[in-house]
Amino acid sequence: MIGPNPNVKYPIKGNQNVQFIKPTITRPNIIAGNYSYYSARNGEHFEDQVQHHYEFIGDQLIIGKFCSIAAGTTFIMDGANHRMDGSTYPFNIFGHGWEQHSPSLDDLPLKGGIRIGNDVWIGQDATILSGVTIGDGAIIATQSVVTRSVEPYTIVGGNPAKPIRTRFSKENIDDWLAIRWWDWEIELISKHINFIMNGDINQLKSI
Predict the structure, then answer these.
(1) Is residue 73 part of a domain?
(2) Some GO term, biological process aspect, for this entry: which one (predicted)?
(3) Which of 50, 57, 96, 108 lies 20 to 30 Å from 43 when distance is taken between CA atoms?
């Protein structure tokens, strides 16, 4: 087989920090593409970083292919959102008669799931909030708090994260999005890795 097996949890021999995400998933509301990895520390598991994620809400975390997600990245899902039309205190979760005041999903300020594109790099200790879409090829700086969606091939950073710059010209971004190399067969990707890594868009367009 050319390249690492995308269905193996630990693709680097002797290293249990770098984990392919897809084979570690146990929750039906998390979906990850082949070769996307999480760089863990202190025995973390990727799903531990996906917080307040409850199946009855129905929100999903969807991650594309070939994403690089650094240690400490946290995904805050819709279950973290409290009512804001009165008290924000979640009385119902404590029971003892308070459970009769459980809000309906329509009462909660739900924003939707999180969608991460392909070939996205998320820096260490970043936080991604519910309702956010991160476009293909984007870069999220270390310790950023991403509260709004990020355009493809854009670098963002800060709290809240704001655009720093685009990685390429608009014309080149359009070319990358049209090529979609991450959807190629792995044999073709492996054959042309140098062009992908070096950003040789003209060579890639000719394939």
Answers:
(1) yes
(2) response to antibiotic
(3) 57
Q: How would you list the strands of the sheet with 145-146, edge to edge?
A: 50-51, 74-76, 127-129, 145-146
Is the predicted pLDDT of residue 25 greater than 90, yes or no? Answer: yes
- 150 in the same domain as 114: yes
Identify whether residues 185 and 123 lie together within a single domain. no
Q: Give the CATH number for residue 133.
A: 2.160.10.10
HEC string of 28-73? CCEEECCCCEEECCCCCCHHHHEECCCCCCCCCEEECCCCEECCCC
Average pLDDT of the chain to the nearest whole number:
91
Q: Is residue 4 part of a domain?
A: no
Residues 70 and 130 grouped into a single domain: yes
Model pTM? 0.89
**What is the pLDDT, as a whole number, of residue 63?**
98
Domain that includes residue 37, residue range: 18-167
pLDDT tens digits, residue range 140-158?
A: 999 999 999 999 999 999 9
pLDDT tens figures, 83-96: 777 777 877 677 78
pLDDT, position 101: 65
